[in-house]
Amino acid sequence: MIDLLFIVITVLFFVINVAFAYGCDELMGGRSTR
Amino acid sequence: MPAWMTGNAIAQWALYSALLLLSAKPVGSFMYRVFTGQRTFLHPVLRPVEVGIYRITRVDEEEEMSWYIYMLAILAFTIAGIFITYLTERTQQWHGSFFNPQHLPNVTQVLAWNTAVSFSTNTNWQNYTGEATMSYLTQMFGLATHNWMSATTGIVAAVALVRGLARRTASGIGSFWVDVVRCTLYLLLPILFVYTLFLVWQGVPQNFSAYTVAHTLEGTTQTIAQGPVATQEAVKMLGTNGGGFMNANSAHPYENPTPLSNFVEMLSIFLLGSGLVYMFGKWVGNTKQGWTLWAAMFVLFSGGFFTAVGFEQNGNHLIASQAHVQTVATSTQPGGNMEGKEVRFGIVDSAMWATITTDASCGAINAWHDSFMPLAGAVPLVNMATGEVIFGGVGAGLYGMLMYAILAVFIAGLMVGRTPEYLGKKVESFEIKMASLALLISPANILFFSALAVVGVWGTAAIINPGPHGLSEVLYAFTSQNANNGSAFAGLGTATPTLQPAFNFYNVTGGIAMLVGRFLFLTPLLAIGGSMARKKTVPANMGTFPTDGPTFSILIVAVIVIVAALTYFPAYSLSPILEQLLLNAGKTF
After folding, report:
1. Average of pLDDT values for B96-105?
2. Do A18 and B72 touch (CB under 8 A)?
3. Cα B233 to the chain's mean position, in Å?
4. What is the pLDDT of residue B502?
5. Nearest to B154 by CA among B388, B358, B396, B391
6. Beta carbons of B75 and A18 less than 8 angstroms apart
7. Of B94, B114, B147, B461, which has the fewest beta carbons less than 10 angstroms from its beta carbon?
8. Nearest to B60 by CA among B51, B72, B69
9. Contact B487/B241 with Cβ under 8 angstroms?
10. Do the Cβ atoms of A3 and B527 come within 8 Å?
């Protein structure tokens, strides 16, 4: 159960980081994601 | 000349600096050839291996990634590494007698996660005793492998940013997978092969033996750890990882046996970081651009070293006032503050190591930073807080320094009322927004978790020293983890039953701080690379601020110092600065 908790924390961080990167690219006009 | 400026300090600094300077060009030129895909003297042997890897993994050597895809590749590579390391630690009781001759049990969940994140982010924060916790397989496959991979990730991220700065009207900044393969094969593998043999020659063990039990003259027994130490030690230093095989790290004679190994280990921390700066200059077509950053880094390194060695050599005046205590350096003893130091290395080597290991994101230690004089201990703290841009962690130092360079041209642009330019490209609002984001992420990360730690028993229960020194211990822990350094000030409680909840607090929050400090910091910087790659160059004119001379070096140093002072002075005034003032008044912690 605790193992699962840490897997979830890790995945959650990376999802947030991908969203952050997407947001940065949107500021640039979305040139790398569209 | 002040009494603390000993001949030993000046000689070691001068020799170190000369060798670092001499190595920058050959190492940087070689890196340039590797990452631009040019032929090197290793190609006859390694090129077939490289091509074979591309075939097996179906990687297109000519592929170009946008900055966003490059970032996703870094994240995917890292998350896979975290899970593999976690699994390795959690299953080590089944590693067998060859890979786990001490029959060490599985690592607990929270510690396994903290360690997996730590080694995957190049931090190598170690909340455990290596030789009593990790099996040989975990040390080799889980930890040493990540020393390679995390170092590679840092280097290729810097290479991608440099590519972005150097290219014109391009949409891509290279291929992450191709960069990783080239970095591993041509750069790390050959150097580490030779380096490992050197360490074995110096006396570092490389075996799979069970630990040796020695019978002492007092009639007791002592267990002496063995293992594949040399392979891990080499990459630990060259890759600016810092995670030791042994708990005592490079103060242990099996990790750092001789004065020569100590000097070479210090030199290897800066070797690639220094070379990367030269590579940057060569890549953008003007090596003076690289030397300008190199000079700024060197000034900051020298300032840090002489500050640390000065306070350490002066020592504690309260001890000096005691009868029969000699704190002045003589030909037969080092004098100064010898608390927490390995006597083989003394004050100069300890202060020099502490400065270098935190200028870079290494984190290996050969002395106890917690025992340094308050303002000598502030040197590693400030080094890490400024982002370890002084030659820096492999890759991380250069991309952090380029962030400051962009801020510096922005400030210079404000002064003269012109649109700032860097390397012939206009620096516009997007780049400034991204540099500001990167700049704010680190202090937010450090100060939020430090504040959280000192407002409740979950954090305070683990603090061993009271008063400002205790705050330094907490600040140092989160600064180190945010900066992916990994060195510990020490003084935070270990996994005793009564401190178990607090221990878990630092493992969990520390793990998050390491992830934020590595990847949320890197993301806007790669975005700058992607944005700059698309721009056209404009010819320099009378109004262009030159970024390839001593004026720009001074400006960068000033920006780094002023930003650090504005950001952290309130916190430091309650920790090392207050501690020094109270020490002057006769109070210790």
Report:
1. 92
2. yes
3. 15
4. 47
5. B396
6. yes
7. B94
8. B51
9. no
10. no
Alpha-carbon span B192 to B1, nearest angstrom: 40
Strands B421-422 and B425-426: antiparallel
Q: How far apart are CA B57 and CA B175, in angstroms?
A: 14
User: Complex ipTM, two decimals?
Assistant: 0.95
Chain A: closest CA distance from residue B224 (Å):
33
Residue B331 has pLDDT above 90, yes or no: no
Interface check for B87 against chain A (CB to CB < 8 A): the answer is: no
Minimum distance, in Å, between the CA of residue A12 and any CA atom of chain B: 11
Residue B496: predicted pLDDT: 43
Contact assignment for B430 to A13 by CB distance below 8 Å: no
Residue B478 contacts residue B489 (beta carbons within 8 Å): no
A19: tokens are 């969203």
3-state secondary structure of B588: coil
Q: What number of other Cβ atoms are within 10 A of residue B241's Cβ? A: 32
Rounded Cα–Cα distance for residues A20 and A12 (Å): 12
Is B337:B372 a contact under the CB 8 Å cutoff? yes
DSSP letters for B307-371: HHHHHHHH--HHHHTSTT---S--SS---S--TTB-TTTHHHHHHHHHHHHHHTT----SB-GGG
Q: State residue B497's pLDDT score.
A: 45
pLDDT at B494: 52
Residue B2: what pLDDT?
67
Interface test with B, best of A18, A28, A33 (most B CBs within 10 A): A28
- Relative to beta strand B212-215, strand B421-422 is unpaired
Mean pLDDT of B530-534: 92
Q: Which residues contact B181 (CB under 8 A, 6 or more apart)?
A: B50, B53, B54, B59
Phi, psi of B421 (to 5 degrees): -130, 145
CA B330, chain centre distance (Å): 34
Rounded Cα distance between B323 and B326, Å, is: 8
Give the CA radius of gyration of chain A. Answer: 14
Q: How far is CA B416 from CA B409, B543, B550, in A?
A: 11, 8, 18
Q: Give residue B177's pLDDT band: very low, low, confident or very high (50, 70, 90).
A: very high
B residues 415-434 closer than 8 Å to A (CB): 430, 433-434
Report chain B's terminal Cα–Cα distance, integer Å.
31
Looking at the complex, does the CB of residue B520 fall below 8 Å from at least one CB of chain A?
yes
How far is Cα B319 from Cα B322, in angstroms, rounded to an integer? 5
A9–B433 CB contact, under 8 Å: no
8 A C-beta contact, residue B335 and residue B327: yes
